[in-house]
């Protein structure tokens, strides 16, 4: 039966989805494949070469476990095909992630079409059988390829668990995949005294220990079991081959909804509990695994979120305000024209949004950073200064102390008619900004054009699941950086649960939080978002140290919220 035009069109669409935008056909068209190791889970373990390859790819085929890690670095417009209609039934749907065989098919299909393909796998591609098979196919067909090594799971996870695999005497190390290990392999592993790294699953961990004991390892041999290694969900348990089943049962460790939850077990003296307690650098971070709510947009919270991650936290950005143009833009237009014609001696930026508003107005008039020539520029803090530098402007003045309007005023020079030919300052700000800076500049002898550059309005409510997490205690902490973030968050999402740690940037914000019925646990020593994150980390560190000293299991605040009782029905 000949294909109909609609069938041919559907097949062409499937091929385009799998290979990316079509290139001109030709017999010599051959693509290039990069087999890329994405590491065991931590996005920070991607190599520089991996990021470079991802940025140049036409097509990205990724193991579902690492798709989120690598997609963040993929080139805009790169195709990320799932299982295509070309080799699965239509009933399967286009949203199913590729199996190992499907992934190989997609890689070869795209390469034959002349595309640059990245095939990303968890860990290292040299330890991935599917990637090895695809390499052989490329070699057979004359398709060029390269291998970008990644951090192998069997090496990276023990490193994050605080378990070095070799001692100064050079202990032998052997890696075993429990899913494919034969009786001979278990026998050899049991008879040796090497450090053994076993890739297994949570369900098979106890059986793995029994296999090793049966093969000759002593039941009191130390063993560590690490789940979700290198991620902020990582959990490591110290046991022995004989006790591991009871340890996991007592800890109430349950299999994940995904069958075969990956586990790395290390067997040998290198995993002794006393040694691991000293070397467990990752799980001992002060905010390890804490879900911290940051009431800011991703753009505003970038450096703050990165700082929180360095403490082991998982930041969640939820914007509480939206920025809109001023209702009457004429003021702003006149001020920008005055800046170009020499009306001002200074321009002072008090926020990233103010920089953005002026930049947008510049672009509207066809201006760039050169329009600031001859004008002194002040920035109220580090983030505002960074936004100016990105625009191409280096600030002449920043607070040497407190990063605030008060701090800026302390360093601002008084007007001097001898040295200052112009006595006027351009101050583009939000419609709800305080008068502190205006009043202070006037006291120093300056005239101020206080211009509304943008309006702040309450943001739309976050998704229902986020609102439920806020009210139900799903977040471990929330960082309030202003009184308006308190009012707006409560207004759009509800009041945080009483188990949630409340951290405030200063006394005024703390007062507003208390007026809304919130208990303030942490306050920054000075009004800086980075000092606020630092103060939260110090709080988490003290809390952790107290639990360890008392011999208690270290828990996150959200883990202490009361569990809802399951409803019972009676007939």
Structural overview:
The protein is of the alpha/beta class and 571 residues long. It has four domains: 30-151, 3-Layer(aba) Sandwich (Cobalt-precorrin-4 Transmethylase, domain 1); 154-279, Tetrapyrrole methylase, C-terminal domain (Methyltransferase, Cobalt-precorrin-4 Transmethylase, Domain 2, 2-Layer Sandwich), CATH 3.30.950; 291-320 and 460-559, Rossmann fold; 324-458, Rossmann fold, CATH 3.40.50.10090. The protein has 20 helices and 19 strands. It has helices spanning 5-19, 48-55, 67-71, 100-112, 129-141, 153-161, 183-191, 205-214, 244-250, 273-279, 302-310, 330-340, 352-364, 382-391, 405-411, 436-443, 464-472, 483-493, 507-515, 529-549; strands at 32-37, 59-62, 116-121, 144-148, 173-177, 195-201, 222-227, 235-240, 262-267, 291-294, 314-317, 321-324, 346-349, 376-379, 424-430, 447-458, 477-480, 501-504, 522-523. A five-stranded mixed β-sheet has the order 5-6-9-7-8, with helices on both faces. The longest helix has 21 residues, at 529-549.
